[in-house]
Design goal:
29% strand; 1 helix
């Protein structure tokens, strides 16, 4: 399973809907990573 991690602090896990992948959060990850440890992953399948 592929995942992207960025930032430090409290963990924040970003989950996409069916058929989505981590790139759906592309614009949000850098902004959220300023305050949180962001984890965005690709669902299996």
């Amino acid at each position: 399973m592929y995942c992207v991690e960025a930032g430090a602090g409290e963990p924040l896990v970003l989950v996409t809907g069916l058929g989505g992948d981590h790139t759906a959060w592309g614009f949000q990850v850098p902004v959220l990573a300023e305050r949180y440890r962001v984890i965005a992953f690709d669902n299996r399948g």
